[in-house]
Amino acid sequence: LVESLGGSTVTFGYTVSAYFFGRILVTPLFGSMSVNYGYAKTLLLSNFLTLIGGLVYAQCQNVGMPEFVILSRTILGIGSGTLGVTRAFASEVTAQRNRTQYMGWLVAVQYAGLTMTPFLGSVFFNWCGGEEGLDANQGKLFVLNGYTSPAYFVSIVAAITLVVIFIHFGDRKGSCVNKKQGRISKKRAAINELATSKTCIGLTTRDACILGCMLVNIAVKGAVATFETLGIKYAKSHFGLHSSRAGSIVSLCGLIGSVILIFIGEIERKVGNINLLWSSMLMMASGLGSIVLLTEENENPQWRFVVGCIMVYSIGYPLGQTATLGLFSKIVGRVPQGTLQGWMAFTGSFSRVMFSLIAGYIETYLGISYVFWLLILLSCVSAVGILLGRDTLSRLSE
Question: What is the spatial distance between Cα 12 and Cα 172, in angstroms, rounded to a whole number?
């Protein structure tokens, strides 16, 4: 679409980044709004903006300016900035022992959406006549073609969601629970004392652990964002895979990851939240390690790329992301989590943008293999940090 409107490669880059910029812009704000004004009002506002963004995007061909595409994607990004809100709501209405399970289901829905929407986009494109249908009826207010049909679909889904939230979603603000506490046990008193004790960096132990979870979230999100950005290109240059086939492998592995997350509650009960987290980080490091130390020719065994995708997309990322969110929510505790969950979502969105940009520079000046070595190092450092602090993390998440 950007190319057909006369946009350059630079314009395309701004178009891609506009969505994430919009999300970064409002994620902490929506988190605070959920505490001050309630979840329903915040979600109604975000879905309304998504509906408007889809309608604006559908008019890009009529306007004929690539800048209009950037505007529409920014609006869509703003409308999607409610990850922290949904996570905060799940944290408030679920028991702590089931927290990771519900976080896993939220991640599964999001992950399935990211995996399946490119497929749905291609279905809409072909259903509306493909390339031949792009110029038909141009200039009319309502045009249904390969570019506009996904936008109308998003707007329809947003409209349905608005109605459902308005009718069925009970409006409630993030509120502290158990404000009136009776006598607390010696175990809880010891945990509270540990949480409020000062660390060598001047933060309380609880705040330091919250910061640590955010840093792990940056590592997890950054690694998968870089893999998304360069993985297909790497598969083409080093494994001889066509981009469509490599994309199908990635999508299938993502779908498998979404299915695995359905059983995250049972997995966590058997393994434990912290063990699940550090092992997932090592799994990501192993998956990335399977696609380095290759020859420069495109004759490397393709099974190594498949194994890497399985370990990153099917196991490491979905389980690591869910375990991070579950641990973070447990450490924050039974208090309004909207603001902190908003900042947690902000770190994830920000890392996706920054890691993609940094990876591009490293690939240009050093080579693509150095990008994956950096991701392996970050994953291993994260795993070691979790192992070193596992006792403190376990006690604060009780």
Answer: 40
